[in-house]
Structure formats: C-alpha cells, structure tokens
Design brief:
Bound molecules: nicotinamide-adenine-dinucleotide
Strand content: 15-25%
CATH architecture of the largest domain: 3-Layer(aba) Sandwich
Number of helices: 11
Largest sheet: 7 strands, parallel
CATH topology of the largest domain: Rossmann fold
CATH class of the largest domain: Alpha Beta
Helix content: 25-40%
Shape: globular
Number of domains: 2
Order of helices and strands: EHEHEHEHEHEEHEEEHEEHEHHH
Distance between the termini: 39 Å
Strand order of the largest sheet: 3-2-1-4-5-6-11
CATH superfamily of the largest domain: NAD(P)-binding Rossmann-like Domain
Length: 324
C-alpha cells in the first residue's frame, strides 16, 4: 500500500493520527512547518521505519507537490487552528486554511492522489439556529474568519470531488481534548491556576455551552470512515461528518471539573457577557447521528476527556514554554 500523507503531522491532532496510522501498519509521510507543531510529539514516530518527516510549508506548492509524490491518500490537518484573533490578522486564516487547502488539492492532482480527509470545524456553523446542529443545517452565516476560511476549504474539496473524481471526507470537529492538547480553555485555565491558584479569570459569564471530544475518539472516527470508504459511492463522492459527543457542558461545569481534579477552590472572576471573544459561539452542540450511524461511538465522556487533558498537562508542563 502507498504511504499516507499527513499535513500538520507535528500538531496535537496530526501527531496522534500519525501514531495510530503507524501502529496499524500504515507507512506515513508527515509534513509540517513546525509553526505550532512539536518535535517531541513525533519522537516515537521518528523511531518507526515506516515514518518519514518532511519539513515544509503549505504555502510552498512546489515543495508540497514533491513531498507528496508516491503517496496514496492525504489527511489534511495543517492550519491556523486558533479561532480567536482572526480580526487581528485578517490574511492568516485565508492563507493558512483556504489557500493552503487549495495548494494541497493541487499537489494531489499533480500526483494523481484522489482521497482527502480534511479537519474542518463546528465553527463553520457560526451561531446556528438549529441545535443540535446537523450537517445539512440551513446554509450558515459566518461569525469568524476561521470558520469562513474552513468553509471555503470544504467548498474547494467538494468541487475537486466533482471536478476531478476525488473522494472527500470532511470532519466538522467540536473542540478536541486529550494528550498533546496545546491550545484551548483547559490549557488556558491550567496555566492560570499554576500561576495564581487562588483565582481564575473566565472569559464570558461561564454560561457558554460547549461540546468536546477526546482525541483518540476523534482519530478513531476519522479512520473508521476513511477506511470504510463511506464517500466512495455517495452522491458527489464527498461525506461531511460532525464529530462530537451527544453531550455538552457549560464553561462553569468545566471549571468545576478542572478545579475538582486539581483540588483547588479559586475565586472565579468572570469577564462578563455571553461570549469570550468575537466569533465565540455561546452554544456549540452538533448533531452526531450521522457519524454514529456508521457504527463509531465515542469511548470517553467530556468530563473524562477534561481529566485526561489535565493529567497530561500536569506531566508535560514544557508545552507552556513551547507554545509561548
Ligand atoms: N483542536 C481542536 O479542538 C480543533 C477543533 C476543530 C478543528 N480543528 C482542526 O484540526 C486541525 C489540527 O488542529 P490541532 O489542534 O492539532 O492544531 P495544531 O496547531 O496543534 O496543529 C496544526 C499543525 O499544522 C502545522 N502547520 C500550520 N501551518 C502550516 C503550514 N502552512 N504548512 C505546514 N504545516 C503547518 C503546525 O506546525 C502544527 O503542527 C486544524 O486544521 C484545526 O483547524 C482542531
């Protein structure tokens, strides 16, 4: 079997996917520019003869095309993964998420590779009217540059499926938690609690309702559907899946899980309002019946995922220096 090409291989989700692919006997070419990726996440993979790492940037189409040669399918995870700050750097999401996706598709076309899996996001729904939000929710109004840039990436992928006979798997993730987690609210809260255990600043009023999924459940869902080739015979050869659990928690519940796990009772200082930042959606809860109907189901609850994340952060405080 031809090797699998993984963009963003040194990232939180990418490196977890790489380890699982290698464990299952796949050969993997990992591609990353290490803008947020960590060499330490690829330590085990690098010892595996089935793994090859190529350092490169998605905005360098010639290098991308060369690195992909000989591969059989692509998992495209590299991106600017931070939904905040879009309004401060208006080109970043466009370049890193939309143009980069176009470059990945063109490199695939040049190499005759036709299967792509893409990490999109629940942020593409903006502030959905319909909750839990299904994949075929009314065409959403965008509320973040990140979501808009990912939705544009989805559009390109489906157009390549139609135009060039590609097979596309698009995953709209809720927030992902677990080992190697390097950004998000648990990361921020734990950092604060190390620095000042007596108080915790919480963006918004704590009432925001959010959904989370444990990393290994996320990786399993991706592999379950790509290996099952669920897009191959579908209309337009593209499948869009929401990835999440059948539950959500309030930010204040999450604060409770975190403080309970750490044995702390900090004074809570709320920023106020029902949003943490521009584009923050106060209620994210995706309808996951479609992915559940494929036979996949998550093993961990949100609370269990938060506890695993904290345990990993406690044992790997180096990531705070690495991500400064
Ligand atoms: N973590 C989440 O909760 C979450 C939720 C929804 C969607 N996603 C999506 O999942 C994917 C992975 O997210 P993550 O949390 O692992 O983020 P991450 O920042 O840990 O991983 C992204 C990886 O891509 C690499 N990269 C970035 N720009 C690149 C470029 N131009 N060329 C080559 N490599 C580049 C980074 O160095 C990093 O290793 C992203 O596409 C993100 O948008 C993540």
């Amino acid at each position: 079997m031809s090797p699998v090409f993984v963009t963003g291989a040194a990232g939180f989700i990418g490196s977890s996917l790489v380890d699982r692919l290698l464990a299952d006997g796949d050969e993997v070419v990992g591609w990353d520019n290490f803008s947020t990726g960590q060499e330490r996440f690829l330590e085990a993979a690098s010892r595996n003869p089935g793994f090859k790492l190529v350092r490169g940037d998605n905005l360098d189409p010639a290098a991308l095309k060369q690195a992909m040669a000989g591969c059989g399918s692509v998992f495209h995870l590299a991106a600017n993964a931070d939904v905040r700050f879009g309004t401060e750097h208006t080109r970043r999401d466009l370049e890193q998420n939309t143009i980069a996706t176009y470059n990945v598709l063109e490199a695939m076309r040049a190499n005759g590779i036709k299967r792509i899996a893409f990490s999109s996001t629940g942020s593409t729904y903006g502030e959905a009217e319909l909750i839990p939000t299904p994949e075929d929710a009314p065409f959403p109004v965008q509320t973040s540059l990140y979501g808009a840039s990912k939705l544009a990436g989805e559009g390109l992928i489906s157009a390549y499926c139609e135009g060039f006979g590609f097979e596309g798997y698009i995953y709209r993730f809720v927030s992902i938690l677990g080992e190697r987690y390097t950004h998000g609210h648990v990361f921020d809260f734990y950092q604060q609690l190390i620095e000042h255990p007596g108080w915790l600043k919480v963006l918004g009023d704590g009432s925001q309702r959010k959904s989370y999924l444990y990393i290994q459940d996320c990786v399993e869902a991706i592999l379950h559907t790509t290996r099952g080739e669920t897009a191959r015979d579908s209309r337009h050869r593209v499948q869009v899946y929401n990835l999440g659990t059948s539950e959500y928690v309030r930010v204040s519940d999450s604060v409770g899980f975190i403080c309970g796990t750490l044995g702390l009772k900090p004074e809570l200082r709320y920023g106020g309002g029902n949003r943490g930042w521009i584009g923050d959606n106060p209620f994210i809860f995706l309808d996951t019946r479609k992915i559940l109907s494929t036979g996949w189901k998550p093993k961990l609850s949100i609370e269990q995922g938060i506890v695993r994340t904290l345990r990993w952060l406690e044992a790997n405080r180096w990531v705070y220096d690495a991500r400064r």
